[in-house]
Specification:
- By secondary structure, this protein is mainly alpha-helical.
- It has a three-stranded mixed β-sheet.
- The longest helix has 35 residues.
- Helix 1 packs antiparallel against helix 2 and helix 8 packs antiparallel against helix 9.
- It is globular.
- The chain has ten helices and three strands; from the N terminus they run E-H-H-E-H-H-H-E-H-H-H-H-H.
Length: 312
């Protein structure tokens, strides 16, 4: 009957975004639309990159990986949240709660790694464009992508194992729309100093390491752009980085806000709002950011649609 060592709580109740009954249907329709948009937008990126020969380049290979992670990130949280809005199903078992925490953390951690890899890719493309496809060859791209997944999932596995060893004696109410690490440890009736220490160390290494790669890459990119003699050349080189930089700013910014915000009763509602932006809205925005700012993606989509229309 015990889900963990000495635990008594076998399930939790997610309180969701709000308890106002009049808002449940409206919120269900809103977040269902966002989830569907997330799936369609990111799946469109996957399909375009897969079938368009124009996009068979390292930059778009990593963009496809980012879209896959965004689909996974949103799918880990959205269905349970939507069920809570529609039918009021807010119970979640201890094991499912730990699994949700793990998968969400794994997807987010993988995205940190991928964003760092994409920054390095832009650095290589701009600093030495003639050797870009040689340096960023197929085998290296695959290894970097696999390394991002392995790093993200192993990083989160440590925290999931540490969470599973905690005892939960009640209460069983989680004031959130999903199982989240800070909320769970606060419900534990055992000492979680080791958990917080390991989280601080490993999360610090992951975030600081990926951010270091991004900062150094963009520093080198800026130096390379300044060496370009023509204004049009500088503008063209910089435009290839704007979409990625926007995604980095949104993802790291929302994550930083959640980390620095005090985990108290007074800030719980604010934390939920930032979590919605971080885990629900940003995965929906990423394909829009890349498709609107990228002429190659728009051209590949136009050719695919034109070819499809001609086949009819």
């Amino acid at each position: 009957m015990k889900p963990g060592n000495g635990s008594f709580v076998t399930e939790f109740i997610l309180l969701g975004l709000t308890n106002e009954p009049d808002l449940q249907v409206a919120l269900f329709l809103l977040f269902l639309s966002v989830y569907v948009f997330t799936l369609l937008g990111n799946m469109s990126i996957l399909v375009i990159v897969w079938f368009s020969t124009l996009l068979h380049m390292p930059m778009y290979f990593f963009l496809a990986q980012l879209s896959f992670v965004d689909i996974s990130l949103s799918t880990v949280l959205s269905p349970k949240m939507l069920a809570g809005f529609l039918i009021g199903e807010r119970k979640i078992s201890f094991s499912s709660c730990i699994a949700q925490t793990y998968l969400f953390s794994a997807c987010a951690s993988t995205e940190f790694c991928l964003l760092a890899v994409m920054a390095y890719d832009r650095y290589v493309a701009i600093s030495n464009p003639l050797l870009y496809t040689v340096k960023m060859n197929k085998h290296l791209c695959i290894r970097l992508a696999i390394g991002s997944y392995i790093g993200g999932f192993l990083h989160s596995l440590i925290h999931a194992i540490c969470l599973y060893r905690l005892s939960f004696c009640g209460p069983d109410l989680i004031n959130h729309f999903a199982c989240d690490y800070p909320v769970l440890v606060n419900l534990s009736c055992t000492d979680f100093f080791l958990n917080d220490l390991l989280r601080f160390v490993f999360a610090g290494i992951l975030v600081a390491g990926s951010l270091f790669v991004i900062v150094i890459s963009y520093f080198q990119i800026a130096k390379a752009i300044l060496r370009i003699r023509t204004t049009s050349g500088r503008r063209r080189a910089a435009s290839t980085c704007i979409s990625h930089f926007t995604c980095v700013f949104l993802f790291y910014g929302s994550c930083l806000i959640m980390e620095v915000m005090p985990n108290t009763k007074d800030s719980e509602e604010k934390i939920k709002v930032v979590a919605v932006i971080h885990a629900i809205l940003i995965p929906a925005l990423n394909p829009v950011i890349y498709s609107l700012r990228n002429n190659e993606v728009k051209e590949a989509l136009r050719k695919m649609l034109f070819k499809q229309n001609c086949s009819w």
